[in-house]
Inverse folding.
């Protein structure tokens, strides 16, 4: 027997061979990659360059632009952050929003910087050719963000905002906004710990005289932390919403400034404009 029974059953009969659509080719390649990854050990793993991947994708009808966009999202979607206790309890502190804009990189960068400065009230701290760093500003601005309950400038609550715009070809650009909210996470974590200890301490003291009070120590410690975690998740949602809104505005493009100014209404010859009536003055009497 030259072949095992399992391999013989996988042979495609010539009568049922047909050409695959791009969607079917994607499904077959994804499944084949999963099976290959299971069989291959970690020692025999190899790497592939993006250019070779582009050539392989072209053979199944995937255009180069879509592959480069997928590569950009792969390397920029996840942020690098150490796995600390604060992250385990409250979640990540670096939030990222990526969007592809159908305009050159320089035009997109200028508009995004204007939006961060004017709409969100951020201050430019550092700028290079590749990126720029923004924050809430000095101490007065930090107090202003604490007292801001309108939620119109949610990015003022962040420690910093990093803006990066890259050219992806074909007159397009990829905008990348990264928000660091570690300050908010630290504040909520500290408040949860302080409030939990404040509530648990009287129960622990009362437990010395009655052991039933010890049953409430752990809930008193955990409940405030859970509540502040929900508050932190809301803050992260507001920051994400603000970044997505900025990218939406950038994707729509700047307002059209080439519109001609409003022309005055034409008047027929001899027609006067609407004038206010002249007030009448009366002369007082001689006795007055």
């Amino acid at each position: 027997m030259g072949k095992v029974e399992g391999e013989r059953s996988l042979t495609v009969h010539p009568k049922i061979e047909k050409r695959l659509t791009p969607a079917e080719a994607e499904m077959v390649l994804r499944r084949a990659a999963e099976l290959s990854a299971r069989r291959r050990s970690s020692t025999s793993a190899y790497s592939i360059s993006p250019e070779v991947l582009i050539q392989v994708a072209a053979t199944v009808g995937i255009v180069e632009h879509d592959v480069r966009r997928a590569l950009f999202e792969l390397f920029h979607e996840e942020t690098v952050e150490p796995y600390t206790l604060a992250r385990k309890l409250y979640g990540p502190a670096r939030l990222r929003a990526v969007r592809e804009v159908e305009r050159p990189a320089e035009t997109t960068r200028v508009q995004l910087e204007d939006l961060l400065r004017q709409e969100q009230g951020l201050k430019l701290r550092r700028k290079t050719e590749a990126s720029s760093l923004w924050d809430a500003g000095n101490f007065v601005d930090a107090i202003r963000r604490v007292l801001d309950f309108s939620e119109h400038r949610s990015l003022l609550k962040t420690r910093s905002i990093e803006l990066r715009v890259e050219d992806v070809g074909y007159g397009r650009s990829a905008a990348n906004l990264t928000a660091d909210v570690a300050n908010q996470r630290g504040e909520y974590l500290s408040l949860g710990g302080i409030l939990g200890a404040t509530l648990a301490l009287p129960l622990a003291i009362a437990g010395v005289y009655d052991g039933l009070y010890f049953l409430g120590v752990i809930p008193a410690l955990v409940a405030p932390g859970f509540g502040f975690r929900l508050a932190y998740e809301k803050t992260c949602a507001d920051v994400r919403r603000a970044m997505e809104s900025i990218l939406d505005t950038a994707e729509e493009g700047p307002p059209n400034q080439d519109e001609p100014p409003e022309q005055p209404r034409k008047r027929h010859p001899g027609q006067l404009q609407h004038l206010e009536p002249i007030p009448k003055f009366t002369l007082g009497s001689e006795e007055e």
